[in-house]
Amino acid sequence: MEHTNPFVPYAPDRYDEAEMIRRGREFFEHVDRRRSVRFFSDEAVPRECVELAVMAANTAPSGAHQQPWKFVLIGDAETKRRIRVAAEEEERQNYEGGRLTPEWRTALAPLETTSDKGYLEVVPWIVVCFAEKYGLRPDGARVKHYYVNESVGIACGLFITALHTMGLSTLTHTPNPMAFLSEICSRPGNERPYILFPVGYAAPDAEVPDLTRKPLDEALVHF
Ligand code: IYR
Q: Which residues form the Nitroreductase domain (predicted)?
């Protein structure tokens, strides 16, 4: 085909049908073992593991290939403490100050979450994902970004899956509101805090709510 821009051949791996299904099932069973974790070990995790997870996230498809994400990696105790203090302050207003609606409380009850976010100081790493609402050219001009939420959401999904593949755990924590993360992480105004990820090993005695996933016939409609 004739192009006006550079194109290269692309030939993704192919498998026979039995192998396709075997691989699909193996991947499903792998991701089906993932759970969000709120009880972490303080055991050190190599920085390279988190870098690899961000490299995986960075492969996500994005609107107009604008890759509108930025991952901030925090490993120092003082910054983790500042994030915990600020997150708990906001969450106290949610849980104890009545900012959560009764409907929201009911929805959250099975998770038994509270305003205590002690895990933010236990984990070896905190990763904060920021979404670039718009780009900035070197001269300061704004570049419109497309499908920012979709793009960053997919990147975060890959990030979570990569951590799980390495035997690490995380939690999609969205302290509400989370503007304090822009200040603590010194991020510019075009970046909006998107999700905060505590990253580490699950504590040996970690527990998770006994939840089940909805069956395929509720997730998939054959039209
Ligand atoms: N941000 C709060 C509340 C919370 C909200 C949802 I939706 C959850 O799935 C879990 C918690 C908190 O972090 O506790």
A: 32-201
